[in-house]
Amino acid sequence: MYNVTEKEDPSPDPSEGEVARAQKMENSTEKMPVNNSSSCIIDHTIHQTLAPVVYIMVLVAGLPANCLSLYYGYLQIKAKNELGVYLCNLTMADLLYICSLPFWLQYVLQHDNWPHNDLSCLICGILLYENIYISVGFLCCISIDRYLAVAHPFRFHRFRTVKAAVAVSAVVWVKELLTSIYFFVHERVFKDEENHRVCFEHYPIQLWQRNINYYRFFVGFLFPICLLLFSYWGILRAVRKSHGTQKNRKSQIKRLVLSTVVIFLACFLPYHVLLLVRSLWEATCEFANNIFNIYHFSLLLTSFNCVADPVLYCFVSENTHRDLARLRNSCCAFLRCAKTGTSRELYQLNTPNTSGKNKTPTEEPELLRKLHATGEDFSVLNTGNCPSRILAETDGYQAEGPI
User: Which PANTHER family would you find in this protein's record (predicted)?
Assistant: First the structure.
């Protein structure tokens, strides 16, 4: 007979195991970051190298260009041209974005460390991202307005008024402002591994961001770009069918339409494609690191739209060239007048002026009067329904006006 002694079960008590697992999870949770943006270590080199260059270029070129564009839109509104309403709203959106660039420049130069309060980050982020969709909305409005002017100049004339343009512009602004409210209910400033306060950066992307990005892509970009392409296709078709339009004028319109579409796609298409890619597949830090540089490069491309808008929609017009020339001549005349007055005070020259400067004081009011002219002779509209002429001249828009 052998005495069989039972050995103690080495397996731990189930209750003790659960306690150990709970403690382990608690310890690991304490070590984990509180937010997703710091769960990935991202190389922000592109922000310190390329971003400052782009921001400075857009700031230096975009600010004066958009100020002149705003003045040109004002002249169009004075001439009762609804296109001026869209141009002014588009320019205001670009100027608001340009005003936020010094803050973003400071942010990237300090190695992605937001130095201001959380509210300023939220406002600058909204100006950065919502400017894209406000610009897309007004570019779409301009294209539809030009299409109606060419293809249906009389049927939809009551929709092409200043009051109608103001109402449409209000809808665009309200739509984007309501969308921006979505950002107020989510935290936008986080601390990364280096204890930097990052602004509008989450890696990997969060669930609520995926939902808003789907809305941005389909409603904010894809739908407007379809309308824009349809409008410009209709313009080209109407111009092609026109027998009264000169060949060189047709070529000019085609080049302008194609350049507008190409620049629009170059500024906005790469960003929205990558935005959709991130929303669909970004779930790991490895993916976020791989796509970071190209994604932020595409985001920088959208900034150039602030410079392209005045060039495409204002400065290609010979009418604008004349207005700017008049403004330049007025400024030069004013400076010559001031210089002449100063020299007379200093040297008290009472001799007759034979150099032609005595004409400046009488020419200056005439130049200013021409510069602020509110209309042109539109009797040419009654001579025919040439699409290119209707396109450019309807409601005070001259034949050289932008599409």
Answer: LYSOPHOSPHATIDIC ACID RECEPTOR 5/SPHINGOSYLPHOSPHORYLCHOLINE RECEPTOR, OVARIAN CANCER G-PROTEIN COUPLED RECEPTOR 1
